[in-house]
Amino acid sequence: MSETLLETRSISKDFSSVYVLRDVNVQVIKGEILGIIGENGAGKSTLMKILSGIHAPTSGDILFEGKPVYIHEPLDAKRLGIGLIPQEFNLIRELTVYDNVFLGSELRRKNGLLDKKAMMTKTRELLSELSVNIRPEERIENLSTAQKQMVEICKAVSVDAKLLIMDEPTTVLTQHEIDILFRLMRRLREQGTTIIYISHKLKEVKAICDRVIILRDGAVISTEKIEDLSTMEMAQRMVGRALNQVFPEKGTPTPDVVLEVQDLTVPGVIENISFKLHRGEIIGLAGLVGAGRTEVAETILGVRKAEKGRVLINGQAVAISRPADAVANGISYLSEDRQGSGILVNFTVIKNITLVSLASYCRSILRLILRQKERASAEAHARRFNIKAPSLDTRLEFLSGGNQQKVSLAKSIDAKPAVLIADEPTRGVDVSAKQEIYRLINSLAAEGLACIFISSEQEEIIGMCHRVIVMRQGRATGSLEGERITEEEIMYLATGIREGAA
Amino acid sequence: MRTSAVAHAVRRLEYQKYASFIALVVLFVISAFLSPFFIRPANLVNILSQVSYTGMISLGMAFVIITGGIDLSVGSLVAFDSLLGVMFMNYIMGSVHNELVAVILGILAALAVGAATGLLNGITITRGRLAPFIVTLGTMAVFRSLALFIGNAGEIQSQSNIYGGFGLINILFLPVPVWIMLLLALALDIVLNRTRYGRYLCAVGSNARVAVFSAINVDRVKVIAYTITGMLVAVSSVLLSSRFNAVSTSNTGMGNELDAIAAVIVGGTPMTGGRGTIWGTIVGAIILGIINNMLNMLGVSAYLQGTVKGLVIIGAVYIQRQKA
Prior knowledge:
heterodimer, A: Rossmann fold, 3 domains, 17 helices, B: mainly alpha, 13 helices, globular
């Protein structure tokens, strides 16, 4: 059982003299699920990219099944039987499932034309082996995120992968979909496939892995059997210091209503959403993926047209038809899709932070930008948010996910909004950055900011919010307050087992 | 450890920023060796004045390309603007008998037409949600055809003697068009790098969705870019028709759109938008001008010059991508 499948011997990697991996020795045992955890920038992804041929190590050796191997390009990895399921899917939306599964290794007939029938049959076999119910001729664009993930797995397995590397596979999945994925992983393990599982979510690592390797600053900190380590210990070793209380103490909201939403309805998307938000209050929007939480935010911001209902600011109805109107009315948005609608990766830290509030840094009819004022303000944010960047003139593409997110948050609040809609504010962010983001939102609320907090992580909702609105299929199924905010109650309402008093 | 990566990134950035300047210096030195006539002041001034007409158009093109768009109609618009300007001037001269007033009104008419056509491009692109390439490909055909129709596909002479002169006056050793190009570059460089509009221009080209969520009126930013381009085209048209004191509806502005785009690209602004450089664009225009000039001096067939220009453009983009 404890036969070694893959071994790295003092692998190091530097990018233009910056070390990202130092003397990494890892043993992967045949037939196990090995968890690899670490903060953003600890070197997890780099290590996996080396194993799958995307990067070459600066020094060190890789042994596969006892023999030294050289993995120079992804094709080499494929030949050895190493399959990588990347964080961002590598599927072509317009093609069918079987086209994607056989992409790059298409089956052909004697005359050179594609043998679609054979590919379809083979794909069907693979899918049923994995007990996944997807039609091989379905187009990728018609699949749910979880199904796409299944196709990625199918694609990796189709080349008889001995080692499967999964990079943050559950970030975009719902709990139900995660359960399916875990079942699938266990079945693969029974069939003899070895899996490396990279994740930020320690609970999941604890649930699925046999062993865990912890990376910090490019080096292996410890390798343990999963039963010897609690999630708290994992977190502490990742960060390298004891973690105290994760969530800060909740403040007390004031009685003044800042934002009121009445009967907001977008046909087929959200229905009769109403709530009042007070100064200093953090109100949570919980629910499964697709319950309509982001859509509520988008409707308030004017990205979606409401058919019915209205939005009141300080008791006055306001007309908002695009995000610019929302900002003018003191509503700011922290997007769940950081790179898609939150930040500009090729803009510097300063330019991102002041993008929304740029008008307040301009002077004269020429609208000349007061650069010193801009810099001073960005400096203040960077200090308060503990943004780690080489300089404020560094472009965001060179920053880690957690720091990008802090910049995104700074950008959202620089215009000093009365209301902040924070949509999945800690997605793809490591433990310590998460903690900082919680503190920030909490302290902003203490200063009087009213916040709508959208999250799929129930711990966050429970730890941060004064009140929680649970949504299901576009409707509010219930509202929880104080002691009643528990994981069970949220799940009952989110899955429709119970409808609470709204 | 971290700082060295940054230093590296900064070096890379600086290289990109100055790549076109370095190329210009290298080209200048090589040209000076190849031909003793090249470095004569008269020749250098000649290059600058040849470059200035499309040079100022390329400044507007840079703005448009930074937003992620393109304007193919500028060449046709040169003909259309100058034709309407000169015809209006002739008409006024016939009725008012004050030449100066007529010239001024003619110039204003050309500028107004330029702004209006740019606005039209911008509004069609943003309101119609159409690709800039398609819209301006269409207006390129439309304005050339209208110019040919109105001018009977012939040459329209200006009836003013003042008009034909001012485009050739020298101030401090340089002709008026060169000064105008440099002043426009100075102003637009400030707009791009120091004003809110310039910042928004880059934001829109970098990621329009992020710009929308950042409370930026994306459509307005784009419309303004196309309008500025239209006005710069008009300035160029006025100077060009003044130089000849006439407008040829079939030849004027022919191929200017490609020269303007080439200057922007050679100057270091990426086609994908999001960032760009005004002085780089001027350098790009001058590089293309020097190449033309050298090929002429070395007696290379006029028919082959396009090949060299084309290869330079492709090479410039290739080098920029390698270093990016």
